[in-house]
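#random but structural
TW: two for the price of one
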Amino acid sequence: MKMTEQKRINIAITAMGGQGGGVLADWIVGMGEAAGWQVQSSSVPGVAQRTGATVYYLELFDGSRSAGEPAPVLSLSPASGDVDLVVAAELMEAGRAIQRKFVTPERTTLIASAHRAYAVSEKEAMGNGVADSEAVHAAAREMARRYISFDMAAVAEQTGSVISAVLFGAIFGSGALPFPREAFEQAIREGGIGVDKSLAAFTAGAVQAQRPDVVAAHEPVAEEAPCWQYRGDDAGVQRLLQDIAQDFPDALTATVLEGVRRMLDHSDLRYARLYVERMLRLLALEYGHAGGDKTDWRFSREAAPKLALWMAYEDTIRVADIKTRSRRFARLYQEVGIDADKVSYFTEFLHPRLEEVAETLPAGLGRWVLRTRWAGRLLEMLFAGPKKLSTQSLPGFLSLYLVACLRPLRRYSLRDSLEQLRINDWLQQLEETVPVDYELACELAALPELIKGYSKTRERGLGNFNLLAAAARALSGSLDSADILRQLKAAALKSERGTELAAALARHHLAHLLQPEAGSATAATEKMAVLSCAE
């Protein structure tokens, strides 16, 4: 007797490390076997977001067979057009399943979490490399017989569990498997891992999956910036926050407050006041310019987050501070699933360069080290180069903790001297540009987006920033200046090679800016100029 499709259920689960894909597969296997079904499970490991998540493939066959009917031969991997249920623990994995043709309109139920775990290609992009989530939702609605999607990572966090339990609940809520709720819950109990929280997450996932509008809410929604609330009792901070509420329009308040939060976390109250003072300077430009839209505050809204990110630059002190914070250890313990009282070792991989070590020193001493060959070689031999430290060991933790303790002295460091000089030059150029060309000033305010990362990546970004700042000076007051600067920035963000930017500069007759004598074309040129200045 031939095996019928009604007796066979094929399931493909895609999940990354830490999402519990294997546990989810085990729950389904246990549930099927308890019901007397023949179940086979296999997995093909991926390399997380680089080439795709691990694919767990399960085939379930109804154990009841007629007399003389041969035992079924089950497959080890999913085939195109032959999958009944696809479960994706992250949205882009659902897209990959569609690309592999696991999802078909006449057969497949697709269950996917709507949250994103960004791929390496998205993270390494110099600009905004995030893929379009709505395109995946649209393809899923078109290709699946039924599509269920909501933010399952958020539900897992709310219930204190992992996403696999929410996915298991969504599978039950979809009705894709012919097993009662008791069978699902019993599979979780027999698993014996975080039973109570897993059951809570299972229930929440089932409820969400049964909502009639569970896939309808994927229209882009404009999100309001969260407004930081100060929980401390420092009178100076409280006065500063009161001043912000009085001096800034409502459209800017949340962004400026977030900037203050970053300055307090990065340095201190004095630094937060400096950020607010600089923002008031920029806001005054907008008040004084007739071309600015006082209901939109476009220039100030563009400058506020860029200024905050630039002022909260990451140096060796900042890195050491973040790596020795207690809440970071708590997060790491949670991610690897161990208790804080268990023996564990976290290894930090560091590769400080001579420049980054010297910039931690007082400004005068740091300049001298970078100018003096033997001193630079000695410092490089002692502190620079690749290093591995365990923050679970006393020597490793203390070495980073002592660097973090230099935070009050940061304002005297060479790195702070360099960054404040660069920021002041940018602010001065903004003050010169707003009265002449408001649209160009808005684009100039967005240019610090180019400065990101660390080491050579940051140097390249800073070099591009200097090039485009020089281009803005050359374009000021000309026709289509803002549009041209916008195009140059887009070209600079396309790749690290710089070929696109060079071509764009030539296209707009600005190729002369690439010559070092024409201006500060590279970060290295600008840096040496700063180092040669008197203290």
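TW: number two ↓
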Amino acid sequence: MSDYDLVIRGGTIADGTGGALITGDIAISGGRVVAIGKDLGVGREEIDAHDRIVTPGFVDVHTHYDGQAIWGEELAPSSAHGVTTVVMGNCGVGFAPCRQSDHAMLINVMEGVEDIPGVVMAEGLPWDWETFPEYLDRLDAGKRDIDVAAYLPHSPLRVYAMGERGARRETANDDDLEKMRALTKEAIQAGALGFATSRLSIHKTADGGSIPTFEADVEELKAICRGMTDAGSGTFQIVLDAFVGWDKEYGVIDEVVKACGRPATFTLASGNEGPPRWRAVLDMMSATNAGGGQVTAQVMPRPIGLIAGLELTVHPFVLCPSWAKIADLPLAEKVAAMRDPSLRAALLSEEFSEGHPFNALARNWEWMFPLDNPPDYSPPKSLSMADQARARGCTPQEIAYERLLATEGKGLFLAALGNFEDASLASAHEMLNHPHCIPALGDGGAHYGAICDASYSTFLLRHFVRDRRDGGIELAQAVHMLTQKAAKAVGLNDRGTLKVGAKADLNVIDMKRLTLHVPEIVHDLPAGGRRLHQRATGYDATIVSGQIIRRMDASTGARPGRLVRGAQAA
């Protein structure tokens, strides 16, 4: 007869606190860790973890699974990379609260900001909710592999409270502010983890307009966040517009935190060139925390950027006027047409026409690199399209064009837009090691045709820990960043550590085999929509609430994931 439901035997345990590694067994029963030690009793099921590391499940606080968590049960890529809890509703975009008359508007916002095809949302969402509490109930009723928590998003909230005036970005009046404050309190009490917004100028709707929250008055943000104060809980998440200057933009966080007394978290990255302005932001954040506020910066452990390719949303020729002639052809026919000398000459000479801001990023030749298998997210600068062109005495367009033809149109590019200062991840390394920074920004569930960063946990462990590149990070500290530190930043204090009584979310990882594969295109969304997926090798097991959801890098079909309603006590 077994003593426990599951025993993980003989692993090297990184408990999530950043403390010393230990070797031993972990026993699980009833979805909880019930014993940690040597030579524990027999489990109904056992996992041999000798020569493996055992960690808490990873927590990604910045995703966009708002739709995928409704129409799907497997929150991949995140769950394929050791993530057992995700937070969605980031950047102020989502699907509740929402009246029936506003469905198309929210789809337009989400399609533009997060690159989710409108037809996928139109077919995949039942829209059997109106209020945010009703949306949470819909999530609660679903089955999925990992846990989800959700912010109240600003764009739907603003339009719900203000109607067309909110969509047109008119200034909220006193009645509007009171309504949004009351709706925020209601959402937090129902289980929202907090409130999220965006001020980023390149966040555009699908038709090229500014999103409803762009340039919203700081007084509006204060009023909404006071709704969290009224409820006694909640984290404020914001994407600032660094393009207008950090001195001005960071002050928004300072004002709101002082006004409402709630924690805040925001996106931070370094530029690839120019002075390291991010260091001043770290100093400003430290000053806020020293003054009694609680602010955390979210940092991507590898370059922030896009993946470009002929089968994806952006590529180096997508806005060339002549591309429109072949844009709708199957891939093989596109490539055949590109071999025609006249079309080649046109595409190599034409400038980009007007389009979504993300498209122009696919021609940032100085910071555009080939992305092969296995993918290198810290490539030497000599591999950039610009550097290769200088070495060969041709144009970057020619280098990119040749790559596409040589790979039959399947070649991918990494457009490294930030966090790759001087062609190194040293800036990301420094930010990650700051006491008030956490790894995040996986963006799982969004940017289906342009970004696949939900694998950052695997990258961090392989690149910084195992391979000791760009400064290196000790294993215990890296696991702490991915688990307890990330969870605490948004009030999820019930997870992220391995101790007796803790929620049994764990990973068993073979660091020697840990491999990140090149992103691939899969067609598993509603309406046959395509998305980027990225697989990993080396996850012997991922466990959620005591159930093994993945074994040897494949789903087991278990669906123990649940909605996490609001902040959680330790």
